[in-house]
Design brief:
Elements lengths: L1 H24 L5 H22 L13 H21 L6 E5 L5 E5 H25 L9 H5 L1
Antiparallel strand pairs: 1-2
Helix pairs in contact: 1-3, 1-4, 2-3, 2-4
Length: 147
């Protein structure tokens, strides 16, 4: 399971890094894309906090300047790799409170997979936003990454 999650987080790291580089290279990143990618970073950070028992530093919809994305992304990935490396039981159930104050329970495995799936979902929305704003979306499909 560790190898599987490390592979998925490698893929996530690659995709986010490519998107950060693309947005850093254009003069006017679309506002919706900034909101969506900031949300990806925030939610990844917040789930890492659930997994480590720490208090999150970012709000769910907090906006970050494109120039700060790389540092936040790197820290998120570093923490996720540390989590996957040190977890003893992927089926361990964790109780947590969501951003609205509701209590839930999920396994470590569920949460780790959600981080990846959530990021992929919103990168798809960013691709749509790029097209809408006359920008060529990045090719970030998993199979292309693995080739």
């Amino acid at each position: 399971m560790k190898v599987f999650f490390n592979q998925l987080f490698d893929y996530n790291f690659y995709c986010n890094k490519e998107l950060i580089e693309a947005c850093s290279a254009i003069n006017n990143t679309p506002e919706k894309s900034i909101e969506l990618f900031s949300h990806i970073l925030n939610v990844h950070h917040r789930w890492n906090a659930v997994l480590t028992g720490k208090k999150p530093e970012y709000e769910v919809n907090q906006i970050h300047d494109v120039k700060d994305w790389s540092d936040i992304h790197y820290e998120n990935q570093r923490n996720s790799f540390e989590i996957t490396t040190n977890v003893d039981d992927f089926e361990k159930r964790l109780d947590y409170e969501n951003s609205e104050g509701r209590l839930f329970t999920n396994t470590v495995q569920d949460i780790l997979f959600h981080i990846i799936n959530h990021s992929t979902h919103h990168r798809g929305q960013i691709a749509t936003d790029f097209r809408k704003n006359g920008l060529e979306p990045l090719q970030l499909d998993y199979v292309f990454y693995k080739r």
